[in-house]
Design brief:
The complex is a heterodimer.
Chain A: E1 15-19, H1 24-37, E2 41-47, H2 54-57, E3 66-72, E4 79-84, H3 89-99, E5 103-108, H4 111-121, H5 124-144, H6 150-159, H7 168-189, H8 191-212, E6 220-225, H9 226-234, H10 241-246, E7 252-258, H11 261-266, H12 277-288, H13 295-309, H14 316-333, H15 340-350, H16 356-368, H17 383-394, E8 406-411, H18 421-424, H19 426-439, E9 445-448, E10 458-463, H20 467-475, H21 483-496, H22 501-513, H23 517-533, H24 537-557, H25 564-582, H26 587-606, H27 613-625, H28 631-644, H29 649-659, H30 666-676, H31 681-685, H32 688-700, H33 703-718, H34 722-735, H35 741-748, H36 753-761
Chain B: H1 12-15, H2 17-26, H3 39-47, E1 49-51, E2 54-56, H4 64-75, E3 79-84, H5 90-102, E4 108-110, H6 117-120, E5 122-124, H7 126-132, E6 139-141, H8 143-150, E7 153-157, H9 164-176, E8 178-181, E9 186-189, E10 195-201, H10 212-216, E11 218-223, H11 229-246, H12 256-271, H13 290-307, H14 314-325, H15 329-344, H16 352-362
Parallel strand pairs in B: 3-10, 3-11, 4-7, 7-10
Antiparallel strand pairs in B: 1-2, 5-6, 8-9
Classes of the chains: A alpha/beta, B alpha/beta.
Chain lengths: ~775, ~375
Amino acid sequence: MAGAIQRMQGIERVNFFGVRHLSPAASWHLLKLLNKLKPKCVLIEGPSDSDYLISGISREEVVPPIAILAYTADKPVSTVFYPFAEYSPEYQAMKWAASSKAEAHFIDLPSGVMISLNPFKGDEKENSGYYSFVEGLYSDLIKQGGENSYDSYWERNFEHNLNEGAYNETVTLHSAEIRGLLEPEEFKCMPSSNAVDLVRESYMVGQIQKYLLKYKPEEIAVVTGAYHTARMKYETMPMSVGELGELPRRSSKLTLMPYSFYRLSSRSGYGAGNSAPEYYQLMWSSMQGNDLGALPIKYISKLGRLVRGNGGYCSTANIIEAVRLSYALTYLKGGAMPTLSDLHDACVACIGHGEFSELATAFALSDIGVAFGYLPEGISQTPVQDDMNRELKRLKLEKYKSTISQKLDLDLRGNLKVKSEEAAFLDLNRSVFLHRLQFLGIGFAQKAVVNQEGATWRESWVLGWSPEVEAKVVESVLKGDTIELAAAFHLRDKLEGCKNIQEAAKLISISYICKLSGGTDNAASVLQALAVDSGDFSGTVEAARELSMVIQYGDIRRFNTSALEPLLQQLFLHACLMLLSVSSCDNKAAVSIADAINTMHIISQENSEIVDGMEWDKALWGLAGRDDKNAKLSGAAFAVLLERGLITDEFCSTEISRRLSPGVPADLGAGWFEGMSMRNHYALLSRINLWRELDNYISSLEDEEFRKALVYMRRAFGGFEAYEKNSIAELLSDFWGEGDTDMAVFIQGGLEGAEASEIDGLNDFDFDM
Amino acid sequence: MPKQTDILRLPAEKLYQAEIEALIAEDKDEKPTGWQMSPRSVLKFIIGGKAGKKDIVPKYVGHDRLVEVAIATLLTDRCLLLIGEPGTAKSWLSENLSAAVCNDSNMVIQGTAGTSEEHIRYSWNYALLLADGPSEKALVKSPIYRGMEDGKVARFEEITRCPSEVQDALISIISEKNIAIPELGGELSAKRGFSIIATANTRDRGVNDMSAALKRRFNIVILPAPADLKTEAGIVMKRVSEISQSYKLKAQLPTEEAVIKIVTIFRELRGGATLDGKQKLKPPSGVISTAEAISLLTNSMALAASFGIGEITDEDIAAGLQGAVVKDESKDQAAWKEYLENVVKKRGSEWRGLYNACRELNG
């Protein structure tokens, strides 16, 4: 092996301090020890390339939980977190070093190597056997300690004991013993996971040796997971530069981000032991106040208040009894102080009437909590995080940076009562910002559905922060240094991959809503290019509709949409010209085309001053007059013209009698009628002549044709409301001379058995007969 | 009263006398006032273990932590309320706890609709009362009175079956730990070690709700049904063998296979789904508890011993199952039949005998 180096003399005299990550007692004992030894150099388990972040982390204004986030500089983005709570020994070590003018350094593998090695740790194929082995071992340990869970075991044995020197040696020994039992099995089942640990230790020892060149062993303190301590102190060989070079490595960047207790409890980059960060925080603050003994009382009182806050019942007497019971449970275990599990069980028996579920919400708040970290401005962050914070401040959205979701209603109309333009359009600017976030996939804001129909000036959002949001923000740095630039980049990216016309129109709309003016032209030209070649009628219409909406909202959102108008004209014309050719289709395809015809009608009405309505009318006339196109679509086109009042009564009856004249096959005649009835029913009901023609037509049909027609008719009338059917029934009874409502009642009556089964028989009617 | 021999059912402290003695002999921990052994020994007595060379039989299996909470409650002079479905060993746990703590599980009040305040406090021997007037001698002490006097654990079974005004008589006893006896112009204050273990049935909630005032004064432990098939089968097996010994049943113990079959049927009907969760079932109206599985098997043993071949057959079990499941003829009959046809029938040859026997009975 190239350039293997030796362990240096005296490394075992370095002050190693083995901790459990996120352990208040570890922090407590560590601080005691640091104050006693006053080392000049504190070395901490953490990515060595993030050394420069330490000064930021240890600043006064920082409020944990925070995390170092390492992310790869190129795609696919991989991330790794190093979270710190206030009670993390690593965090306390950094704070101590800063206040005692000692050096502090991270000594673990650089983040780029960690990211590349991580996949090796979780190889699922290897895991199964090992995990059950670990579980078995721990359950033996738990049983021997007379506890119910490893957390209780740990808390009872290590967290409650604040006697001097009670932590370091025992925890180190304990961890070394456990490692001795686990490692052979790990080596067998998960060799790569085992190897990652060994590689890390070797690197850390190498780093320690580096600082040994500068300091005496006694002047150095090393804070790492206790799992590694004994091995590094006595055995591990240091890694050489050459060996480091052989490790896989992706280029990575680092940043700081606020973290949340929720995230800390659900998954942690540092292993187990943090199911209850809020509780551990309480424990830490009790230790700080030299008042650890009061922790059970504080915890249960807090829980009691939460229960009351949730509308539950909890008296002071209940709280007293719960505290007493928790101590009685402790007495059974021979412990000095109740563990969290003792406190839980006592609360369930004394406050929750024996049911955990009654207290579940309160427990979630008292154990996990909603704390969210804070990083002051200017602390090392990615530019995009800085921009995010600036924007939040500018738009007065800072109070929404909380883990509890809140609702925000926006009124996009300018507020004329205020002086500055910025203030007048605050909500509009917010909307732009939130849309940008949404477009980037940053889950800070979710758009809620607004009920008020057509209220284009109103928007409702639900805002809530989480570490995932922060991580997403950080990931956006790959796209640009500000949210706006990132969104513009993202838009460009999307446009490049854009293959169909609707998507392109959607992107145009996004470019407006997100005010990415640079992207708009680009998007427009992409759309234009796609539109020229497009033979997709529905898609073109959909795209045109998207544009017409943008143009309509333009005023309220203060867009300059003039650039879009020629594009809309072009799409509209394209669609008009396509209509006739696409209308030679089967009934299945006709459904979407009929929808598109409706949409085109809407566009022609709403944007009448932009689009060429004449051309559309021409297309409709063409389709309505043709007998060789899909009859349903011809009917639909006729209905639109009828509704617009472009058809005279005389022409109408001529056309109807022509379409429904005896001898016309049922699929043409009845299909035409079906198409026509898809639109405005009133326009049909008001034309008595139409019904007379229809009546005559149906009576003229042969039996077989009648059966065919029946299928179309049933479908056509399926869309009518009950009262409309009622009017038709009355109309028909007029024709049939009965003249009174009896006939209408008869027509409205349900089908009798034989009729019903015959109608059912039509369900699988074969049109090819 | 004459000394009895040949007692049908021994109280826990007699049944497990040897175990209790072994535990006391071995006990090194501090004993709370009024307790005959330390809390940890009580725990061991309930959940099983070893005292010296003596094996301690587990009395309550599967939920050690609940037992710990129960014992800790007694340590804090609070009263304990055990709640659970019928047949989840509430009374059994309460009996064994009091046997372990104070060697006396006999101070019991059985709650019924007819329980009156006198049953809870004290009443009078009216002959003496009329002859001599109120005196200590004429006082008839309730189990709770005696518990307070001796500093022992009194038991109150099925507390929700009592009318609520009677339940409320407990309030002052639990809070103030004394009973006023105005007739004698004095009062009785409880001696250290006194406590009450009450049990209540979740199915009885509608009969008499427990007053909130009383509920606040208890630490409440809810006893769940056994967590899994293996635990429940183990519990059934163990209790059946104990009971058959004390009843001197001559039949052979049921095979493990038979026990597992019965417990499977019970668990499935109780849960309303097959154990693999694939099939939903219609649960019968009655409760089908572990306790019923135990009594079903001991019944079957008695049947087999007296009228059968000395060995439990499928027919014996079928007869028992029919009685346990079908409590409301009209509804349960259908549910049971459906279960037999849809589930048992399809379970293969091992279940064939049982299926045939059940079908025969069920018509």
